[in-house]
Specification:
Number of helices: 12
Strand content: 5-15%
Order of helices and strands: HEEEEEHHHHHHHHHHH
Oligomer: single chain
Largest sheet: 5 strands, antiparallel
Distance between the termini: 137 Å
Helix content: 40-55%
Shape: elongated
Radius of gyration: 37 Å
Mean pLDDT: 75
Number of strands: 5
Low-confidence stretches: 4-25, 199-204, 206-211, 260-264
Length: about 350
């Protein structure tokens, strides 16, 4: 089968013969080779890559890293988003308007605009007066409009190779300020939080008027876009005031609603998310200040130390030094030893004639 959610429900249906199976596709086998596809987590998140099933967890490999997910936290394995949508539709919608609206939100999250429109229509046919329908209708229209504008922008005005190279150099320079722990936390928590609140609303989407701070939603689908994630990280780091982190533009914008009037302006981040973002910024700034002081001390030390070039390196020394006018002595010269350390001969006894 295409998708295998880890629930007893599927086992019962299969055993009863009431399940109509779509065309078969190979599923990951414990210890078997990796397969290209995606896993849908129980919270709705999607992770794509080369997927292997290892005992009690999936290992998802993608350019730039890998992710390990417990089997109990995986809802299903599928080959693409369309199959995941079809399976979620069969499992979750039934005859509930709320279920269709929830699936519509999930579709909009992953740019499945046609499928989202279908779910909204199904919800409308069940309850045309549902209070959340107008809001989701507006959100879908804005996303469709934004997607069309982004495609047009990317098609009409592609960046030149020189601009791309220049941006990459700038990103690499900024990225040096982020240690490994900060990058991991950015990918797992900070980036999804910023993308869902800002890029989804369009105020910081590529092609928007916010040229100094643009985030690309492609980074959060785990489909293998490490360069997009790096650009998002560099853009975020550029909004940090390293000397006064609490005054960073990143935190200032997160505190207040912003965006154009014709778009859904993202409001302030919830307190728990704001706390996480503030902690990330302050710890980064602390590490940056410490590294700056270390570099300064190292620079002063290099100026104080004597010139190390006075003594030639060992590898440049001659293998053998030839000295003239010198003959090496025998390491043991008996005559020299006896004359210096030996006992003096005893005085000869006087003869009889001398005694007389």
């Amino acid at each position: 089968m295409n998708c295998l959610p880890h629930t007893l429900f599927w086992i019962v249906l299969l055993a009863s013969g009431n399940l109509i199976l779509p065309p078969a596709v190979a599923q990951p086998v414990a210890g078997g080779p990796a397969q290209v596809g995606l896993v849908v987590l129980e919270n709705g998140n999607v992770v794509r890559g080369n997927i292997r099933l290892l005992d009690d967890h999936y290992r998802v490999e993608f350019p730039g890293g890998e992710l390990r997910v417990k089997v109990k936290h995986v809802e299903m394995f599928c080959k693409d988003l369309d199959q995941a949508y079809q399976q979620r539709r069969e499992n979750r919608t039934a005859t509930s308007a709320d279920a269709h609206l929830e699936l519509a939100r999930w579709c909009m999250r992953y740019d499945l605009h046609d499928q989202a429109a279908r779910e909204l229509e199904d919800a409308r046919s069940i309850d045309s007066e549902h209070r959340k329908l107008p809001q989701l209708d507006r959100q879908l229209k804005q996303l469709v409009k934004l997607a069309a504008r982004t495609r047009l922008t990317n098609t009409v005005v592609p960046p030149s190779p020189e601009e791309v190279a220049q941006q990459q150099q700038l990103d690499e320079k900024i990225l040096k300020k982020a240690p490994q722990w900060a990058r991991v936390l950015f990918v797992r928590q900070v980036q999804p939080m910023l993308v869902h609140s800002c890029a989804t609303a369009g105020c910081h989407q590529p092609g928007s008027s916010q040229e100094n701070f643009q985030l690309d939603r492609l980074a959060i689908d785990a489909a293998g876009h490490p360069h997009v994630t790096q650009h998002n990280l560099a853009a975020t780091l550029s909004q940090i005031d390293w000397d006064a982190p609490e005054q960073s533009q990143l935190l200032q914008q997160a505190h207040a609603a912003h965006g154009k009037a014709e778009k859904t302006s993202p409001g302030p981040l919830p307190p728990h998310k704001m706390k996480l973002l503030k902690m990330w910024v302050e710890q980064l700034a602390t590490v940056h200040r410490a590294q700056t002081e270390i570099d300064l001390l190292a620079s002063k030390r290099d100026k104080i130390l004597p010139d190390k070039t006075a003594t030639p390196p060992l590898e440049k020394m001659p293998e053998k030094v030839q000295l003239t006018g010198y003959t090496q002595q025998d390491p043991f010269d008996a005559a020299f030893f006896n004359s210096r350390y030996g006992q003096k001969p005893a005085t000869e006894a006087p003869t009889d004639e001398q005694k007389k």
